[in-house]
């Protein structure tokens, strides 16, 4: 056996070593508990370079995160993407839904019945508007009721495909809607985007402490994996009655809400979004709330948040 060969624990006799080209493939590897690990490709994941090349014409790549489920992250992603696209017809925006087990963007954006087509240049995203497109595993399911029961490696492979095999074209913004937490999908996205110029992350929360506890973990995750935090959005900060326009507090702000948390953790606060049940209804039915509800307080707040996001992205480029 050559000098420098590294043997895994519980290695069988005649083990070729983990640095060998035959690691995990030799006859001596049969039955070894480390066979799958040894047979994995060595060195950097080639998908990282593929993603970098595919997204070379995407100016801003933004992760939309939330430590807590149920804070309206997917709705906020749809709100931001529609606002960005509606504000400037020359601005090209896309949404990538990597919530593998709970894809919702096809329904929220009103394209649930569409199908993904493949060409020589890759998968074509589904267009919501002339300058707004979306890609989601929801388009690939036989039925919206189908459960996706996948382990981490298969999720990882799907995310790599979405980032490297979708023909995104030239985009100003790619918003990546993620599931709650700090697990497989998040690590995969950050890894594959590590060389592609990830602009940063927008974190969504609601005002109550039970949500903020998990959002603090999300902020810590971003810092540990070196992802710039563009800011925090406080969703459902209040309830606006569609009949009388009266504002009511739904969630108790016992610790100062997202604004106070941002001050304590020194991260930007992008703004608050009130809960408008009319927007929730539009999302359920896949209707365009931008054109149907131009007077919505949530849309006015969204426009202000988008201005701050644009400014943050501009500062990053300087």
Automatic annotation (TrEMBL):
> Which GO terms of the molecular function aspect are on file?
4 iron, 4 sulfur cluster binding; ATP binding; ATP-dependent FeS chaperone activity; metal ion binding
Q: Does the keyword Transmembrane helix apply?
A: no
Q: Which residues bind [4Fe-4S] cluster 1?
A: 15, 29, 32, 38
GO (cellular component) term, any one: cytosol
Task: Copy out the cofactor comment.
Answer: Binds 4 [4Fe-4S] clusters per heterotetramer. Contains two stable clusters in the N-termini of NUBP1 and two labile, bridging clusters between subunits of the NUBP1-NUBP2 heterotetramer.
Pfam families xrefs: ParA
Which SUPFAM superfamilies does the protein's record reference?
A: P-loop containing nucleoside triphosphate hydrolases
Which segments carry the region annotation Disordered? 1-20
List, separated by semicolons, the cofactors it needs.
[4Fe-4S] cluster
Give the matching Gene3D superfamilies.
P-loop containing nucleotide triphosphate hydrolases (3.40.50.300)
Q: For ATP, which residues are the binding ones?
A: 67-74
| InterPro entries documented for this protein | Mrp-like_CS, Mrp/NBP35_ATP-bd, NUBP1/Nbp35, P-loop_NTPase, YlxH/NBP35
GO terms for biological process? iron-sulfur cluster assembly
Alphabetically list the UniProt keywords: 4Fe-4S, ATP-binding, Cytoplasm, Iron, Iron-sulfur, Metal-binding, Nucleotide-binding
> What is this protein for, i.e. what is its function?
Component of the cytosolic iron-sulfur (Fe/S) protein assembly (CIA) machinery. Required for maturation of extramitochondrial Fe-S proteins. The NUBP1-NUBP2 heterotetramer forms a Fe-S scaffold complex, mediating the de novo assembly of an Fe-S cluster and its transfer to target apoproteins. Implicated in the regulation of centrosome duplication. Negatively regulates cilium formation and structure.
HAMAP family in the record: Mrp_NBP35, NUBP1
Family, similarity comment = Belongs to the Mrp/NBP35 ATP-binding proteins family. NUBP1/NBP35 subfamily.
Q: What is this protein called?
A: Cytosolic Fe-S cluster assembly factor NUBP1 homolog
Question: Could you read off the lineage of the organism from its UniProt record?
Answer: Eukaryota, Metazoa, Ecdysozoa, Arthropoda, Hexapoda
